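Worked example 2:
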Amino acid sequence: MKYQIVVNDMTCKHCQATIEQAINNIPGVENVIVNLDDKLVFVDGDVAGEKIVEAIRKAGYSPQNIVEEQ
């Protein structure tokens, strides 16, 4: 599965690294790209979108508009 998630409250490189690390710790995640400028997170892997959203929330951010592709 591929996901695209908007994280509007991601404002700096520290935010970017925190979100990337939180998602990389989820079993099944194969690739994470965090685009700070566009406030977008791209995730590939065999993982449910809810787990990604939960990891971002636990890291202290507010994910929005998750788009799932197969």
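Residues 2 and 69 are 5 Å apart (CA to CA). The helical segments are 13-24, 49-58.
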